[in-house]
Amino acid sequence: MDCEAGNNIRAQRYKSECTRQAEGLSHREANAHLADHKNRWSAPRHRQECLFYSTREPHREAIYSITAMNRLFVFAISLLLALLPATACLAADLALTPPMGWNSWNKFADKIDDKTVREVADAMVSSGMKDAGYVYVNIDDTWEAGRDALGNIQANSKFPDMKGLADYVHSKGLKIGIYSSPGPKTCADYEGSYQHEEQDARTWAAWGIDYLKYDWCSASKVYPASEMKAVYKKMGDALKATGRPIVYSLCQYGLQNVCEWGASVGGNLWRTTGDIEDNWKSMSTIGFDKQTGHEKFAGPGHWNDPDMLEIGNGGMSAPEYRTHMSLWAMLAAPLLAGNDLSPSIRTSWDGKATKSRRKAARRSGSSRSKTEIWQWLYSIVGRPW
User: Catalytic: 200?
Assistant: First the structure.
């Protein structure tokens, strides 16, 4: 008998004896229980991406092969192991479908503030977007003020109480996202997370943040491109260490074959191209021409991101916006609206619109571009504005 076979027999004997003594079962009952137990634990409880289960059974075999004198201790350890999957699968339980919500940049850029975010949250509830699954309200760049004497990241005067804002968004049944960069500065030249990764992650978790968009930006000034994977892993590890489930969005424009390693650094989505613009050429090139071959990397917990939606911002016609929406859905892409959702923008369905909006519609090639596209889009929700 070889060593491996002997170890397997001894391991099975110790398992059977330990289970029988612990549960007061007969030998037959204990063996039947173990067979069922092994079958149940041999398959992943959640998803194949949770690698914990690929190593769990060998660990249990090793533990049960300890001498009989340690059986009581082994049983206690076994109970502890049973509690681990919830923590081990923390990242795997995030973004099981492509994230859906809203992002501030495409419409508001540096004009975003606390008041606007609250209005958007209200509109997402009243319009039916929340009921349709659009739950993330994401603050993009320009919220940062710098750091205090202890190095803690601070929000600027546009966001006087970030924790209070997060609480408000959560009270609506929504989630809130934030933005940073692994470089010293963000793309808009605000404070980045360089050399403060763990500290910033703890701050965001304390505020109640649910989503991080992490934009490469000035990181190219302090890291070679070859270190991109390690740089993103550092923040991925920092987010996990907080114990708070935070969706991790890698914004690095598809560089360094990110599709191949994005999930391994904790990423739940990663950009596949450069920034989208509100015109047909940009949208169609990204959507039709630059996604081929990426589909094999998409799945529950990890998605290709062709960038945010431009629907409603006025640069395309209604048919073009419908194509935009349909194409992103077919790509299993995150659906993050980027337009103004405030009530003053949402015209009624009788076609009455302001003079300025009629001009914008004519420039885009459709007399009712925004009204038509949002009427079509929100018919999916099942309740018009």
Answer: no
